[in-house]
């Protein structure tokens, strides 16, 4: 059960904010014509120790790849990104990074975490059982979950990121989402630390506002990229690694092509229209492009309620005890269930129709009591400063909202499962 302070209606204040449902794209899996990915990795490892490396995309994947290339002897690494600043979508991560079997879990009282694999399979749902060669989903999820502690340890011990706070999030059987104790959100903390580490190495360079236009080929061999910077074309030779998979910001391009049903749902991804068919042009095969996940909650900014660009309402707000309420003031879902389940429950509610009707969003509310608020203090202070969240007194809530809070607090205090199956 998320942490929540045992409280009564005599408490003077709780925190109140409005949310909607919106879309966030997961990185689709990309494979070339060489089916065995182990072969691809082997070939790349051999060439990058003798040739410069070109990395496209400056999110966590691109920065990690750049770091590892340098660690394995690459003579130089040049990273390109068309955005004005590095970080991609990774820098927006506000809840943390998952890891099973870490020292921070043990410090938080989680002595053993053997359920990460089964939790991930459950979250994947029917997609886990799809047969789509060359994707071995079981092997991929096994690697993801069994090596997750090593990933957290690498960020902490080698890169210097604080990930000492552990909390449960939706779909998790135990607390395993790691974030820092300071005010910097985990996505920004990880990106800043990794970028600073890379900049200590004179063999690393990064160019922003550089839009890759095409691959340079010599016969059937890729030898580099062509990119545009300030209106001029440039060639950059070396082994090429693409780490630019997020496309939710390309609402009228790739997203519309592969998931037209999501038209009108806002996103946290910056608008980035004009995705290029660079890799498919040389024979790459795209897989799981329809695997776009709906994140349940994002803030409606009162100043721009109908904006298609939303600010993420972090999942950790629910992980620390926030509850979701319908427009009438009642709870309608287990806030700690999987994202898919919570999103589907939200989308069964009536859509908000303010504005021109083009945007699809849902008028729901998240409430946090003083205990949940204290556990989320760093996030909440920022959200209040942005005008996305406000404090209200309990007596100013709707009667239905007060009744919902009473009922939830009673289940927590008694340690029983509530009506939606959330454990007390």
From TrEMBL:
Q: Which UniProt keywords apply?
A: Flavoprotein, Oxidoreductase
Q: Which InterPro entries match?
A: FAD-dep_OxRdtase_2_FAD-bd, FAD-oxidoreductase_2, FAD/NAD-bd_sf, Succ_DH/fumarate_Rdtase_cat_sf
**Keyword Flavoprotein tagged:** yes
SUPFAM superfamilies (alphabetical): FAD/NAD(P)-binding domain, Succinate dehydrogenase/fumarate reductase flavoprotein, catalytic domain
In this chain the FAD-dependent oxidoreductase 2 FAD-binding domain maps to 53-349
Please indicate if the UniProt record lists Cell membrane as a keyword. no
Matching entries from Gene3D superfamilies are given as: FAD/NAD(P)-binding domain, Succinate dehydrogenase/fumarate reductase flavoprotein, catalytic domain
As one GO molecular function, the record gives:
oxidoreductase activity
Q: Name one Pfam family in it.
A: FAD_binding_2
Spell out the protein name for this chain. Answer: FAD-dependent oxidoreductase 2 FAD-binding domain-containing protein
Tell me which species this is from: Fusarium oxysporum f. sp. narcissi
């Amino acid at each position: 059960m998320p942490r929540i302070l045992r409280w009564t209606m005599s408490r003077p204040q709780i925190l109140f904010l409005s949310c909607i449902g919106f879309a966030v794209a997961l990185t689709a899996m990309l494979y070339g014509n060489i089916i065995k990915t182990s072969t691809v990795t082997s070939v790349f490892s051999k060439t990058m120790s003798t040739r410069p490396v070109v990395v496209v995309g400056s999110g966590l994947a691109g920065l990690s790849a750049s770091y590892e290339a340098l660690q394995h002897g690459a003579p130089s690494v040049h990273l390109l990104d068309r955005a004005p600043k590095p970080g991609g979508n990774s820098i927006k991560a506000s809840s943390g990074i998952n890891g099973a079997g870490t020292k921070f879990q043990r410090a938080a009282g989680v002595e053993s975490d053997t359920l990460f694999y089964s939790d991930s399979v459950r979250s994947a749902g029917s997609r886990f059982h799809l047969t789509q060669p060359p994707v071995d989903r079981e092997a991929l999820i096994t690697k993801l979950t069994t090596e997750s502690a090593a990933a957290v340890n690498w960020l902490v011990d080698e890169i210097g990121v604080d990930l000492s706070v552990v909390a449960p999030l939706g779909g998790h059987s135990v607390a395993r989402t790691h974030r820092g104790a300071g005010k910097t959100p985990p996505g920004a903390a990880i990106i800043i630390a990794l970028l600073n580490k890379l900049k200590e190495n004179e063999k690393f360079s990064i160019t922003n506002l550089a839009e890759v236009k095409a691959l340079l080929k010599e016969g059937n061999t890729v030898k580099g990229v062509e990119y545009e910077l300030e209106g001029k074309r440039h060639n950059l030779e070396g082994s090429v690694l693409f780490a630019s998979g997020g496309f939710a910001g390309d609402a009228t391009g790739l997203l519309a092509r592969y998931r037209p049903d999501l038209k009108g749902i806002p996103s946290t991804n910056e608008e980035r229209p004009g995705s290029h068919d660079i890799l498919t042009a040389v024979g790459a095969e795209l897989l799981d492009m329809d695997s776009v996940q709906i994140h349940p909650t994002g803030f409606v900014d009162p100043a721009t309620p109908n904006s298609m660009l939303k600010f993420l309402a972090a999942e950790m707000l629910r992980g620390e005890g926030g509850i979701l309420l319908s427009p009438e003031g009642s709870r309608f879902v287990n806030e700690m269930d999987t994202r898919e389940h919570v999103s589907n429950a939200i989308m069964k509610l009536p859509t908000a129709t303010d504005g021109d009707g083009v945007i699809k969003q849902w008028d729901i509310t998240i409430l946090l009591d003083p205990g949940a608020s204290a556990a989320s203090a760093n996030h909440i202070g920022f959200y209040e400063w942005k005008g996305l969240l406000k404090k209200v007194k309990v007596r100013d809530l709707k009667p239905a909202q007060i009744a919902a809070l009473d009922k939830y607090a009673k289940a927590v205090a008694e340690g029983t499962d509530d009506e939606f199956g959330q454990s007390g």
